């Protein structure tokens, strides 16, 4: 790659700054202690960061510890100098009170690293849910050449003759445990069977969704997202990614040229077609905001909701990650969307080529896994934004609403997307667990379960607790799901018919704060409305009363986070952070 005509690499300002030769020695000397030479660092070769998200605390991304060797090989072979550094761990399943707290913390940390160190470009290693958006948010803020290498899903799981996928098997087995169909040991066996190898969740949960989104945005090499972590192509893509980022550094190909509005609209479309996680909504919105692009409710309604479900993968379908990869992965899905005129084919990507050029010849090879656009698994399958007197904004993943569920909740013949139910209100996860089986609540199939105090401020962090399962007595009668509503989130691996991300949240004075157990809620998906049938006067009276209590902050970060976080509607961003953009255009002071 010719270096002619490019702007000077920012690392030169540290290691070859004619104005401050006195500082050069300070910057250089400690890198010598593991064998780098002053000649290398002063050679004018790009210094490429490898943002390492894998660790024992983030097992979903642990494969990156191995893959980093191949990234380094690629960087070296292309003439760059790799520098690997750790990113704050984010492990979805284990981090209390919720991993969502750490998306913005990892973001902040990465912004400081990318801004404050002599890096010319970065490889973001991604996998577990929030490791992808946090990295991309930081890359957008700093705007240095960036490429995403996903770690890939685990191999498919099998148990008792069935494919068992991450998360999905837990939700299903929990219900069977509560209904007395299996014991605790069988529950554990089924869960373990879904975790087959290195890699992230093998369902179309939040991890697979967000890595597909990264690729759809144009930040990964085409085909990267779906390759299972244990496949040989992973190492090969790691090498190619390392090579390509060196070229990108020399071409000065920055996120600001890739993360344009059309890229985010296409990410919304791809989320619909793959049956992606509801978590894509705050994450896509947050990445867009940090890139200076506003994504609105209308964008979800127009670019996402009307699109069909094309990918037959759990929880909306039956296959898992290996099947998706073999069928063609994200490029095959994007090909379908492009042919149908639902994608912007002329925007730039990390390959240096346009989307349409990247997708040439990338047709699906297995139509049971990736359907043609005109023969989808479901029409109108994108995330549906809703509003009403309980919230200004919420979303529902309609691709997981079963026909049986729709039928059960008809309130009038011919209105198959409209239902009413009696609200059962819970204040946080503990309250739900203590009371869900309380006979006095008299929960039947006409109830709607409501979770409040689970939003960014209330929890804090916004927890995946809205996909509540019905009481054991209903499960034993075969009622496997009730409608749920909440200001928190739901797991991306869940097939619950949940209305999530209610904004403003209860802790910020949103409508859920005045809702009472026993109120009737009407959900009308045709009108995209959700309202409590409570009079304006009664609402005003209740609003004058004290709001539901929320737990106090237990750590300094929780307090900082609560003071600065915005609603899930606008991405759950640290609001003060969104004004910082293009940091790499000015160098930090000595
Ligand atoms: Fe980490 Fe699902 S828990 S990817
Ligand atoms: Mg999750």
Care to give the gist of this entry?
This protein has an eight-stranded mixed β-sheet with strand order 7-8-12-11-10-9-13-14. The longest helix is centred in the middle third of the chain and has 20 residues, at about 230-250. The chain is about 35% helix and about 10% strand.
Q: Which strand order spans the largest sheet, edge to edge or round the barrel?
A: 7-8-12-11-10-9-13-14
Indicate the proportion of strand residues: 5-15%
The CA-CA distance between the termini, in Å, is 31 Å
Net shape: globular
> What structural class do helix, strand and pairing data support?
alpha/beta
Alpha plus pi helix count? 22
Number of separate strands = 14
**Main beta-sheet strand count, sense and barrel state:** 8 strands, mixed
> In terms of per-residue confidence, which ranges show pLDDT below 50 for 5 or more consecutive residues?
1-5
Rg from Cα = 24 Å
In which range does the helix fraction lie?
25-40%
Bound molecules: FE2/S2 (inorganic) cluster, magnesium ion
Mean pLDDT across every amino acid position? 95
EC number: 4.2.1.-
InterPro entries: Dihydro-acid_dehy_C, ILV_EDD_C, ILV_EDD_N, IlvD/EDD_N, Sugar_Degrad_Dehydratases
Keywords: Iron, Iron-sulfur, Lyase, Metal-binding
Domain Dihydroxy-acid/6-phosphogluconate dehydratase C-terminal: 368-571
């Amino acid at each position: 790659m010719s270096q002619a005509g490019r702007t000077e690499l920012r690392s030169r300002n540290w290691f070859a700054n004619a104005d401050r030769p006195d500082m050069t020695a300070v910057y250089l000397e400690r890198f010598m202690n593991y064998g780098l030479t002053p000649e290398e660092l002063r050679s004018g070769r790009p210094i490429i960061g490898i943002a390492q998200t894998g660790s024992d605390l983030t097992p979903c991304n642990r494969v990156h510890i191995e893959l980093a060797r191949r990234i380094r090989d690629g960087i070296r072979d292309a003439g760059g100098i790799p520098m690997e550094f750790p990113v704050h761990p984010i492990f979805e399943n284990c981090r209390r009170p919720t991993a969502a707290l750490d998306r913005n913390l990892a973001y902040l940390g990465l912004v400081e690293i990318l801004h404050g160190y002599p890096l010319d470009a970065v490889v973001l290693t991604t996998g577990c849910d929030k490791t992808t958006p946090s990295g991309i948010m930081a890359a957008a803020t700093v705007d240095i050449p960036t490429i995403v290498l996903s770690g890939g899903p685990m191999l498919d799981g099998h148990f008792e003759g069935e494919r068992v996928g991450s998360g999905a098997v837990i939700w299903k087995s929990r219900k069977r445990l509560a209904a007395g169909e299996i014991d605790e040991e069988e529950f554990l066996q089924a869960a373990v069977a879904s975790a087959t190898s290195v890699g992230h969740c093998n369902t179309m949960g939040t991890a697979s969704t967000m890595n597909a989104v990264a690729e759809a945005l144009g930040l990964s090499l085409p085909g990267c997202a779906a390759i299972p972590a244990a496949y040989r192509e992973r190492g090969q893509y790691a090498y190619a990614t390392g090579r390509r980022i060196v070229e990108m550094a020399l071409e000065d190909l920055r996120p600001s040229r890739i993360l344009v509005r059309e890229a985010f609209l296409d990410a919304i479309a791809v989320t619909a077609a793959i049956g992606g996680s509801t978590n894509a909504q705050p994450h896509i919105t947050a990445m867009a905001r940090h890139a200076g692009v506003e994504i609105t409710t209308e964008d979800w309604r127009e670019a996402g909701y009307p699109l069909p479900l094309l990918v037959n993968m759990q929880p909306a379908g039956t296959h898992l990650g290996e099947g998706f990869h073999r069928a063609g992965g994200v490029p095959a899905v994007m090909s379908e969307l492009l042919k149908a005129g639902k994608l912007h084919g002329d925007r730039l990507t990390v390959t240096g080529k346009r989307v349409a050029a990247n997708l040439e010849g990338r047709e699906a090879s297995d139509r049971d896994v990736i359907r043609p656009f005109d023969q989808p698994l479901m029409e109108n399958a994108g995330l549906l934004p809703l509003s009403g007197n309980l919230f200004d904004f919420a979303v529902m993943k309609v691709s997981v609403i079963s026909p049986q569920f729709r039928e059960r909740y008809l309130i009038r013949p011919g209105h198959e997307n409209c239902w009413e139910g009696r609200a059962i209100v819970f204040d946080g996860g503990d309250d739900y667990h203590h009371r869900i089986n309380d006979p006095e609540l008299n929960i039947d199939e006409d109830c709607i379960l409501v979770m409040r105090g689970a939003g960014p401020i209330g929890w804090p962090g916004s927890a995946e607790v809205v996909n509540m399962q019905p009481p054991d007595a209903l499960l034993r009668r075969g009622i496997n799901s009730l409608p749920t509503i909440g200001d928190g989130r739901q797991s991306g691996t869940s097939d619950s018919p949940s209305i999530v991300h209610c904004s403003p949240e209860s802790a910020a004075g949103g409508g859920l704060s005045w809702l009472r157990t026993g109120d009737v809620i009407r959900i009308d998906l045709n009108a995209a409305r959700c309202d409590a049938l409570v009079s304006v006067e009664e609402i005003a009276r209740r609003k004058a009363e004290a709001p539901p209590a929320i737990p106090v902050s237990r750590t300094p970060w929780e307090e900082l986070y609560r003071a600065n976080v915005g609603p899930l509607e606008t991405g759950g961003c640290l609001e003060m952070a969104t004004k910082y953009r293009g940091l790499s255009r000015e160098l930090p002071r000595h």
